[in-house]
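B., you asked whether I could sanity-check this one before it goes into the benchmark set. Here's the sequence:
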Amino acid sequence: MNYKLAFLIVCMSHLTFGQVKVTFEEVLIKNDSIELPGTLSFLKTRIPLIIWVHGSGNVDRNGNQGAIVKANYIKQIRDEINKNNIAFFSFDKRTSNPKNFKFLKGIVFTDFVTDVEKVISHFKKDTRFSKIILVGHSQGSLIAMLASKNVTKYISLSGPGESIDKTMVKQITAQNALLGEATAAHFKELKETGDIKEVNPFLISIFSKPNLPFLKSWASYNPTEEIKKLTIPALIVNGTKDLQVKVEDADALHNAKSSSELVIIENMNHVLKNIEKDTDNMKSYYTADFPISKKLITTIAAFIKK
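And here's what the prediction gave me:
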């Protein structure tokens, strides 16, 4: 695939934190017909730059999804990270930008990887930043591993420690053992043949025909194998209140790459908020009222500044 040269649309604004002004730039990066508009923010130049790599779903640059998920967690992290003299760039994932919808037919997992590679290529040419750090959240943990060739450091936040087929089998089995068996059989057939002849009607939303190429490509990657290939410093972070990715996943990634740093944060959930009461865990997905984990910010900043 030939990729058109990324281009930049800059609309500068400023926000004051105390006596220091944060500069914001609107940046549009293109991967062929796919548009990836994002926001770059920084206090000054010649500082490290974080490029954020999204989790699954139609996540926008701020960490929201449509009219339902309004956690705003990426925006909250941006604001805190900038205070630590670290620049930050996040973009609207290709699946969240309506302009891209007509180009999403037949999408595969590596399309997300090439999007990130295009973003990295753009900022490698920007001499205002001293180094690039990829921060991959959830599904983005694996995407960032695969796209990390030309960056300085890698951070995994709530990253799964096994291939997606094994994760989905476990999740579905916990709800219904028979459907878990059917899920395992469907993934086996998909990986062997590239298709599923007859899908269990209770699983059709997962294994619909348009989803099969993406699921097959995603399931072909094992995070514990991919992380072994990294030759750059790596930080692995997970929260004890994460309902989607468990501490055991972080342990598996760390064990696969023993040189990595492992940090487990008490009371942090999957959208990286500090959750004191279990009843607030799911609520934090739907509102920005819950604070980002302070320990997460200090952990990221310390790792980047080493």
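One thing to flag: The chain has two domains: 13-162+222-304, 164-220. Otherwise nothing jumped out at me.
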